[in-house]
Amino acid sequence: MQNLAVYLKKYRKESILAPLFKLLEALFDLFVPLVIARMIDTDAASNRHLIFLYFGVLLLLAFVGLGFSIVAQFFSAKASVGFAGAVRQAVFDHIQTFSFTELDAIGSDTLITRLSDDVNQVQTGVNMGLRLLLRSPFIVLGAMVMAFTINVRCALVFAVTIPILFGVTFLIMMLSIPLFGKVQAGLDRVTALTRENLTGVRVIRAFCREQRCVEEFEENNQALTHLNLFVGRLSALLNPLTYVLINIATVVLIQRAGVQVNLGSLPQGQVVALYNYMLQIIVEVIKLAALIITLNKSLACAKRVSSVLDIKTSMTYPARTPSFHMEHTAAPAVAFDDVSFTYQGAGAPSLSHISFSVMSGETVGIIGGTGSGKSTLVHLIPRFYDATEGSIRLNGCPIQDFPHEILCRKIGIVPQRALLFQGSIRENMKWGNEHASDEALWQALTCAQAREIVENKPDKLDFHLEQNGRNLSGGQKQRLTIARALVKNPQLLILDDSSSALDFATDAALRKSIRNLGDSVTTFLVSQRIAAVRQADKILVLDNGTLVGVGTHEQLLHDCPVYQGIYESQFPEESKKEREDA
Ligand SMILES: Nc1ncnc2c1ncn2[C@@H]1O[C@H](COP(=O)(O)OP(=O)(O)OP(=O)(O)O)[C@@H](O)[C@H]1O
């Protein structure tokens, strides 16, 4: 958790001043019962002015205490809010460094809970901790010391009660700490279900799964509620237990003090002072109990936030570009050499011993059945994942030697799921190149067969896209994401099944304009459709993670049984005719 403490260091001054002012407030509070005792023990008839003086002192103590309390609150709020802001930013920045392997392993739902709810809990913990962590024990122990200055025999009641109080508090704390972690994990599950439900609402309704979703949510929500209730009850035990203990102690105290008052060895005012000290202890122990519950929650949340910061990304990039002479223009644009890849936690490899090379300017089709490894293969090129075995080279240079920005600049990838962000079309297009002119944007849109879509929108390039581009159709989104990748002028363009929502004519026109991009652009077209890849210079056929064929459409029809099978299933008439002709 030291990795979180670093962010509080920036608020060192506030973190010292907040408890300090709280201690000053506490010190003033401790004098109040003494002044009241003096007031009671003063003969009112002969010393009226003294009574008014004590009254004035009491008012002064109250106002000065209030002033200290406000200042302490200011500093603790400043420190805790600033600290939480810095932690939130640090966690967000750190997540950006994660490779897909880490993101897959930890899961986005728990990251959202940790970044929002957990950080908020830590903020509350820091705020309360700075104000009360020292104040409450200080008042409890201070009240005991003051009691000893009044009467040692009565003060012994305090000396016995206070350690028992601390013991009970500690026991409940130890029991509840691990449960708070479980509560947050339960919250992760509920967040995951909510997210899945909201993002998949159309599918859920189409399959009439609303009732099942409600039941599943209810099940998890109930489990979370029960756990929360159990932890709440456990923590709530603290208050009645401490009340009972203090009330017993108060009865014993009054009995002892009463005896001494009867004997004439203790003035009545001092009994009231002792009683007031006992009341102060009750109030502070209640605050302490609330503080401990909050701190427990905060600690459990802080551990979860800290564990995100502890994750080291498995992907590192060099700071410097490989020198120009290391990138050979004559070398293949992309070369896979005996590449295998297994997802973390998956038993079997998703790709096994893949070797092929592609020259600059070539168009490569990747085809294969569902789950054959097509997306996995293209995800290795921009280093979404690193190959578990073998090597991948770009222009003769290992991909691990490219700094992140250079790799990003070289490769334009259009993922299977078209994703656009809230903002104007122009803003989205400029993700590819922030300096791109409108002319360059229109060029990319034209190439991606998206010009008409934008021209028909009321504000053209300024048309506002909703979150996830939900005010566009699936095909429109796909074309805009292709245009976004083209704005980059990438050397490598990867289209991962990104024309699946396009009609045949648009798909054909798109492929034609991509083929015309020129010799400097190497294109990977991932598809399950033969029509989408048949004109590629080279087609890779994947079957269950292995490369079972490489060649042109004609070559593969001749010598790749898997390709033949796909062709027959998609073009039954033609393949029948070809067989008859043969
Ligand atoms: N993040 C992941 N974690 C674990 N296994 C994965 C992950 N992504 C994919 N896989 C597995 O890897 C294999 C290849 O998946 P991949 O997505 O590359 O197939 P694909 O050929 O692109 O399929 P499709 O045409 O359906 O998109 C599948 O068995 C899949 O279950």
Automatic annotation (TrEMBL):
What keywords is this UniProt entry annotated with?
ATP-binding, Membrane, Nucleotide-binding, Transmembrane, Transmembrane helix
Q: Which residues form the ABC transporter domain?
A: 334-569
Tell whether GTP-binding is among the UniProt keywords. Answer: no
Q: Please give the chief subcellular localization of this protein.
A: membrane
What the entry lists under InterPro entries is as follows:
AAA+_ATPase (IPR003593), ABC1_TM_dom (IPR011527), ABC_transporter-like_ATP-bd (IPR003439), ABC_transporter-like_CS (IPR017871), Type_1_exporter (IPR039421)
Residue ranges of the ABC transmembrane type-1 domain? Answer: 16-297
Q: Which domain of life is it from?
A: Bacteria
TM segment ranges: 20-40, 52-75, 132-150, 156-180, 236-254, 274-295
UniProt-annotated location(s)? Membrane
Give the GO molecular function terms: ATP binding
Task: Tell me the membrane topology, using the record's own terms.
Answer: Multi-pass membrane protein
The name this protein goes by in its record: ABC transporter ATP-binding protein/permease
Tell me the organism: Butyricicoccus intestinisimiae
Tell me the organism's taxonomic lineage.
Bacteria, Bacillati, Bacillota, Clostridia, Eubacteriales
